[in-house]
Amino acid sequence: MNDANAANRTLTINRVFKAPIRTVWEAWSQPQHIVNWWGPKGMDTKVIQHDFRVGGSWEYVMKMPDDREFIAEGVYSEIVELARIITSANFKPMTEGVELQVLLQEDGDHTEFTFNVVHPTEEYCKQQEEMGFYNGWVSVFDRLEEFLLEA
Questions:
Q1: d(C-alpha 58, C-alpha 8), whole Å
Q2: 10 Å Cβ neighbour count for 118?
Q3: Is 21 within 8 Å of 106 (Cβ atoms)?
């Protein structure tokens, strides 16, 4: 999804995690860690598939407190160790056809984190933002931060 108007179709979250880059990388790349933080607060996550390689697919089931389930799935298109993870992503039934970009940069014993979600159209991007994109993902990354502090 790299093109000139991608900026108009992208929602971004930036954070600095108080954890070494290797710890943050492992939280994203190892399924035994993903289950501890993936999904907004109140959700339990089960890893169905996690083939962490370019061309590999992933699938997670997130269970709400009311027992409703959401499926998250995608295919990795780029992996640069300790730097970048790019994957397609579908979050059924709410969001489909987006690209997730996880960008990491070492800053001493901290990690600068950029999370981009690139949408297929500007209209879809705006709709996702209005549906609570930032609230949902900030909750996920709050959980990730808590997990990293305990790691």
A1: 27
A2: 22
A3: yes
Tokens of 4: 């000139």
For 31, the token pair is: 């399924």
Model confidence pLDDT, tens digit, residues 70-129: 899 999 999 999 999 999 999 987 889 999 999 999 999 999 999 999 999 999 999 999
Sign of the CA dihedral running 39, 58, 78, 4: negative
Overall size of the chain counted in residues = 151
Q: Name the nearest CA neighbour of 74 among 28, 32, 22.
A: 28
Tell me how many degrees the CA angle 118-125-8 measures, rounded to the nearest 5: 70
Q: Is the dihedral angle over the CA atoms 72, 81, 83, 10 positive or is it negative?
A: negative
- List the domains of the chain with CATH numbers: 11-150 (3.30.530.20)
Q: Helix-strand-coil percent breakdown of the chain, rounded to 5? A: 30, 45, 30
Strand partners, 45: 62
Residue 65 tokens, joined:
């407190």
pTM over 0.85: yes
d(CA 19, CA 28): 13
Q: How many CB atoms lie within 10 A of CB 109?
A: 10
